[in-house]
Amino acid sequence: MLEIPHLYHLATASEWDADATEPYTVSTLGRSLEEEGFIHLSLARQVAGVAEAFYGDQDVVLLRIDPAKVTARVQFEDVPEAGDAFPHLYGPIPREAIVSATPVPRSADGTLDFTGLLPEPI
């Protein structure tokens, strides 16, 4: 049986509320699910590139999401600028689908450091 990989979402530290009980609805950098139409997600191999492109100067929290506990449709859509297809969630992220929420540290050069936070590439 094929194991479904976890999906990931980068939340700014100011947007993430670990104590909230409502589903998470921030799509990206302050834009809501309602404004954007979906929530931007990533596969593990895509996270660092997304962080570099959009979150370089932000303090971020890496949300690891169990796709089996997501109730809305996840659709992979091509992002030509990135040369890849990214998962988009067409609904909120249920809190029970969030496996972990980990603040991402910075390396000595100031970049976000995902060492040990993501699975190793196969």
Descriptive notes:
The chain is α+β, with helices and mostly antiparallel strands. The chain has a single domain, classed as Protein of unknown function DUF952 (ADP-ribosylation fold). Helix content is 12%, strand content 30%. The protein has 2 helices and 8 strands; from the N terminus they run E-E-E-H-E-H-E-E-E-E. The chain has a 3-stranded antiparallel sheet with strand order 1-5-8, covered by helices on one side. A 3-stranded antiparallel sheet has the order 4-7-6, with no helix packed on it.
Q: Tell me the overall shape.
A: globular
Distance between the first and last residues' Cα: 17 Å
Number of strands: 8
Largest sheet: 3 strands, antiparallel
What name does CATH use for the topology?
ADP-ribosylation fold
Tally the structural domains: 1
Q: CATH superfamily assignment?
A: Protein of unknown function DUF952
Elements, N to C (H/E): EEEHEHEEEE
Write a concise keyword list for the protein shown above:
122 residues, 3-stranded antiparallel sheet, globular, alpha+beta, ADP-ribosylation fold, 8 strands
